[in-house]
Amino acid sequence: MSATAATPDAAASAAATPDAAASAAAAASVGGEVGKEAEDVVVQYVVLRRDLADAWPLGSVVAQGCHAAVAAVTLEVKGETQLKNLAEKLEAAGVRHKVWIEQPENIPTCIATAPCPKSQVSSFFKKLKLCK
């Protein structure tokens, strides 16, 4: 640990504002260096209603934030083989994505793409049906 490392209290207070939290995340994503690139990082803010936490379980309030953060179109494939084939095509095309592997069962359950222009990815998804 370097002599200039932030204390946990300093890090907590720095993350108390949205811009500070985004800057901290940016610094972490570029190896701790805070520079021009770190200042222009892509961020997403999720704003929760604090009053709901008084009436709802905290997990339910956080789940609402997760819903808002994703707000994605959900499609379906028939099974694991089709999911793996889609992942291979996305990988070959350089489309950033994540295959979620449920543990401890080690079962691939879904794919999420990174946000990107529809024109770059629609061809991979045009034949898939909405998940119902």
UniProtKB/TrEMBL annotation:
What EC number(s) is this enzyme filed under? 3.1.1.29
Reaction catalyzed: an N-acyl-L-alpha-aminoacyl-tRNA + H2O = an N-acyl-L-amino acid + a tRNA + H(+)
Q: Does the keyword Hydrolase apply?
A: yes
The reply on keyword Hydrolase is yes
Please tell me which top-level EC class this enzyme sits in.
Answer: hydrolase
Highest taxon in the source lineage: Eukaryota
Give the UniProt keywords, A-Z: Hydrolase
For molecular function, the Gene Ontology terms on record are: peptidyl-tRNA hydrolase activity
Which InterPro entries does this entry report, sorted A to Z? Pep_tRNA_hydro_II_dom_sf, PTH2, PTRHD1
Stored PANTHER family? PEPTIDYL-TRNA HYDROLASE PTRHD1-RELATED
The name of this protein is peptidyl-tRNA hydrolase
- Origin organism is Oryza meridionalis
